[in-house]
From TrEMBL, chain B:
It is a multi-pass membrane protein. Belongs to the binding-protein-dependent transport system permease family. Residues 105-311 form the ABC transmembrane type-1 domain. It comes from Knoellia koreensis. It comes from the Bacteria. CDD domains: TM_PBP2. The keyword Metal-binding does not apply. PANTHER family: DIPEPTIDE TRANSPORT SYSTEM PERMEASE PROTEIN DPPB-RELATED. This is ABC transporter permease. GO terms for biological process: transmembrane transport. One of its GO terms (cellular component) is plasma membrane. The keyword Hydrolase does not apply. Keywords: Cell membrane, Membrane, Transmembrane, Transmembrane helix, Transport.
Length: 294, 325
């Protein structure tokens, strides 16, 4: 099905750094980077408490005030500043996305690479385990895990990491299957370099492009998953701000205070669109066949 | 021919065995998660009063529920129960989980079918349009739309749409008690419309991308060039040669998405108060009905594996290449 293999079955050696630079020069890459930068600035404000108001501070005299110079995104029913809460919600999303993709990426890639490289029973066992994890719809699995563990941002990250681990394993395994019989890999083991060392010196460095695309896309998925979990009440516990939880809170009073729904919603969309654009730009640069070819 | 057939049977048998092995793994994992859960059947049925039980009472209760036996024995007796249709009982409502599931499943199935129909109606023509002139405005425009559909969370669209309709037009069919398709088709379809539309739009994105990519890949195939050289009229070439082959991967992606919808519609079912299987899991979680959660998740996973297997079978039936391999 996939058409990533070239005629002789050897993938083109991905240029280091070059592909990243090329991707960022595409329109999608530029827009993605800009959106990402906006989100990052807001999230950093949230992380370091540089928001105009304390995101958790209630002020009933200021409840449900529309967007103004004082409160850019308005206030919620408790008089909390929505802009400050969006910043802190973005920080929360970013933290969970980075931690969960970090865990699932490192473990998943390691498992996938080893399974692909050593083959045999290692590969078969990993195959069965990933199939088992894939049998559960991702949101449901995350939900079941998050509900089982105590509610905190750490457990949410672990739940999301478990869901994405098999995806990373599968994505990392495929290119290894192609690369392990390439001449320079065979040559490396032939001259006596240990197999494990060959794997990390000659195989893994050649797949960073595919993995980078996967990391970008996984970040956007994990943000959506965290938002859905928080929306359902199984994500980051209150009073900490989470974008999904803010959308949930806005549900019943969106007729009176549409800004309570609009701004957290917009924050999620901008974040995810930015990451998806970056991922798309990277993918089209690394694999020209997936892009707009004639 | 017979050799090819037996080879195909072999890969088919292998695929079935793989699915069976996956199901065993699914049951072990589901069972293990239940054991990890804080609290056991005793705390589930006695609540905080379980703390007041004497050691003797606890021991006899543990024997009664069979949780004093070795884990392997417990697993097999649990599995035996599941295989004979004993999915447990919801402690608060005293409802049989099998009955609950059989009631919820058709509702989720209906939602999934409607969503797939919406997705196909949007994704396939969109993919064909985009591929008809790759790189042109229509291609870039529809690619951007599909990226948006992937990026906007369904719960956001659902919340915004339903509250807008309710506030502006006072239209909120989901505020009424849920009607099944058989009892009140008119109300049922109204209640299903928004959820199916929301889910359908989000699933249209992968359908669109698959259609587009596969049309583009097939257009350059040798047999298309041959057909064109032979003088097959463009319209016939599109319909008989390109479209027919390009839609094969679309079958696969639709099957995968259908399987995903069986459990993945939980957020939409929750927002629109649709008593489907996803909502059953969610209610089980909030009410701490672990038997409900565990059995329902197991049912969903089993269905998911079976739907994927079926998709694979259909794929092999419609794709001459896969048949030949």
């Amino acid at each position: 099905m996939s058409a990533t293999t070239t005629a002789v079955g050897v993938p083109a050696r991905a240029p280091r750094g070059g592909a990243l630079r090329a991707a960022l020069l595409r329109p999608a890459g530029v827009v993605g980077l800009l959106l990402g930068a906006v989100v990052l600035v807001l999230a950093v404000m949230g992380i370091f408490g540089l928001t105009p108001y304390d995101p958790a501070k209630q002020d009933v005299t200021q409840s449900l005030v529309g967007p103004s110079g004082q409160h850019w995104f308005g206030t919620d029913q408790f008089g909390r500043d929505v802009f400050s809460r969006v910043c802190s919600g973005l920080a929360n999303s970013l933290r969970i996305a980075v931690v969960s993709v970090g865990i699932s990426g490192v473990l998943g890639i390691l498992i996938g690479v080893l399974a692909g490289y050593y083959g045999g029973w290692v590969d078969r066992v990993v195959g069965v385990l990933t199939n088992v994890l894939f049998a559960f719809p991702s949101l449901l699995l995350a939900l079941a895990l998050a509900a089982t563990l105590d509610r905190s941002w750490v457990t949410v990250s672990i739940a999301i990491a478990t869901v994405y681990l098999p995806i990373f394993a599968r994505v990392a395994r495929a290119p290894v299957l192609r690369l392990r019989h390439v001449d320079y890999v065979t040559a490396s083991t032939a001259i006596g370099r240990p197999r494990l060392s060959t794997l990390f010196a000659h195989v893994v460095p050649n797949m960073w492009g595919i993995l980078l695309v996967q990391v970008t896309l996984s970040l956007s998925w994990s943000i959506l998953t965290e938002a859905a979990l928080s929306f359902l009440g199984f994500g980051t516990p209150p009073p900490a701000a989470s974008l999904g939880g803010m959308v949930y809170d806005a549900q019943t009073i969106s007729a009176v205070a549409p800004w309570m729904l609009a701004f957290p919603g917009l924050a999620i969309v901008v974040f995810v669109v930015g990451l998806n654009l970056l991922g798309d730009a990277l993918r089209s640069t690394l694999d020209p066949r997936s892009g707009g070819r004639r | 021919m017979t050799a090819l057939l037996s080879l195909w049977r072999n890969t088919f048998v292998r695929r079935v065995l793989e699915a069976a092995l996956t199901l065993v793994g699914v049951s072990v994992l589901t069972f293990a998660v239940l054991r990890v859960l804080p609290g056991d059947q005793i705390t589930a049925s006695y609540g905080i009063e379980a703390g007041a039980l004497s050691p003797d009472q606890l021991a006899s209760l543990r024997a009664y529920y069979g949780i004093d036996r070795p884990l392997v024995a417990q697993y097999f007796s649990w599995l035996g129960g599941v295989l004979t249709g004993n999915l447990g009982v919801a402690t608060q409502s005293q409802q049989d989980v099998l009955d609950m599931t059989l009631r919820a499943l058709p509702i989720t199935m209906e939602l999934a079918v409607l969503s797939i129909v919406v997705a196909l109606l949007l994704g396939v023509p969109g993919g064909l349009l985009a591929a008809s002139r790759a790189g042109a405005l229509r291609d870039n425009g529809s690619q951007l739309l599909s990226l948006l559909a992937l990026s906007v969370p369904t719960f956001l669209v659902a919340t915004a749409l339903s509250s807008w309709l309710a506030n502006r037009f006072g239209y909120n069919p989901n505020g009424e008690e849920f009607a099944t398709l058989l009892r009140d088709p008119a109300l049922n379809l109204q209640q299903m419309a928004l959820p199916a539309l929301t889910l359908g739009v989000s699933i249209a994105a992968p359908v669109f991308q698959t259609t587009r990519a596969s049309v583009l890949a097939i257009r350059d195939e040798d047999y298309i060039r041959t057909a064109r050289a032979k003088g097959v009229p463009p319209r016939r070439l599109q319909a008989r040669h390109v479209l027919r082959n390009a839609l094969i991967p679309v079958v696969t992606i639709s099957g995968l998405q259908f399987g995903f919808l069986l459990g993945g519609a939980v957020v939409i079912e929750q927002i629109f108060s649709i008593p489907g299987i996803g909502r059953q899991v969610l209610l089980g979680m909030t009410q701490k009905e672990y038997a409900v959660v565990q059995s329902t998740v197991l049912v969903i996973a089993v269905l998911f594996v079976l739907v994927n297997l079926l998709t694979d079978v259909v794929y092999r039936l419609v794709d001459p290449q896969a048949r030949a391999q």
